[in-house]
Sequence to fold (438 residues):
Amino acid sequence: MKTKLMMIGTLAAACAAVQLTAMPTEKETRRAEPVVRKLLAPERAALKSGRKTRSEVAVAAMKLADEADTEAAKLLLMKGAFVLYIQDGNLEKAAETMNALETAIADMPPQSVTNMIEVALLGASKKVDGARLYELLDEAKVEQRQATAVAKEQKEKGLYMIVDLTKTGKRAVTYLDEAPKGGWSDEFKTKKIALRKIAPGSFEYLPGKSFKITKPFYIGVFEVTQKQYKMTMKTNPSSAFAHNTLGDMRPVDCVSYIDIRGSNKGLGWPKDGEVDGNSYLGKLRKRIGLKFDLPTEVQWEYACRAGTKGNFNVDGVEMVKLGKCADNGGMGDFHVKVGSFMPNAWGLYDMHGNVWERCVDRSKDARPGYFEFFGWNSESKETEADPKGPAVGTSRVVRGGSWCHPSANCCSSFRGRVDTGNRGDDVGFRLVCPAGAQ
Fold:
């Protein structure tokens, strides 16, 4: 809803419309007011002339808050941004800003928050949906708690699991607290596999409907490459570059669900997570001693999004900068070396494009040899924890798009399905592994 509110005096007055009852002190606040007024003078002029909207000025105020020298100036600027967002009817951003303000002042009394909101709402020339604003504030607090949990997880040891394919058993597995300073070298795309720990959380897949991940897990930083696959299976099934080393660091392709999990026990999901001993996962599990698998598609999308809500996993960045697809030459030069494009916020590469990535979930039958595309079921539960997909169906889910599909087919929510024996040259996979005791 786009609701305009009256301007409460000048922009500086809007910033000081509600006095804080916590830190900083009243004296510090008075001292900061002329500083804030001077900082905002160009923005006030732009607003008055119509060159900027209130929301645009609020963005500038938040940026100035990040750069402010004193806590008092910072908090005045954040208060101003909150009021301006409400004046522009941008309730989502207003809620985000208020949440940031509460976070900045740990001892800010609840009544102070309520007073600030009420002052902004009372200044409205038209009715503002105050109830919706409070709902958004609650949602922002939940998202903040999730972000804090992720940040805490990142600081703990074992953020990255490294699997050395030249070794076996426990000797093959080490952990890193952070990604290598110089970036991931070629050995992590050939003889070693890097997996990143993902903290529990949730994402909204349809308006008002969410999926929840309750347990941490590791997921591959990159798609499994041809060299990595060959080190376990002693063969490379890929359609391109399999006869030489040019494909070593490109994703393995022409590998079916059955090749990865097996045609007997490996088809039992979601009844259990067993795989056939002669499958790729069967051999890798035996060699390393960990329960590697394909991701569920909810794990896949949660990891792909990395907290984003749009079509692609880096806000404001178009698909052609995130992965290989038909829109940036994929039809002419096939898939590319893993890690050639920008990662998401959790450091995962090629979640969009390059090759479709297989998930463990079943889906209703697809025509043999064909891809079919489908959307999320709008009749599913409002919140579902750790879903494993349907219990029947011979087809399996693929996600992320590929080198031969347009950007629209590579977005975070786009779903495909293909039969278990399909060995498409645009389909590959990445690994997951439970975090913790196995």
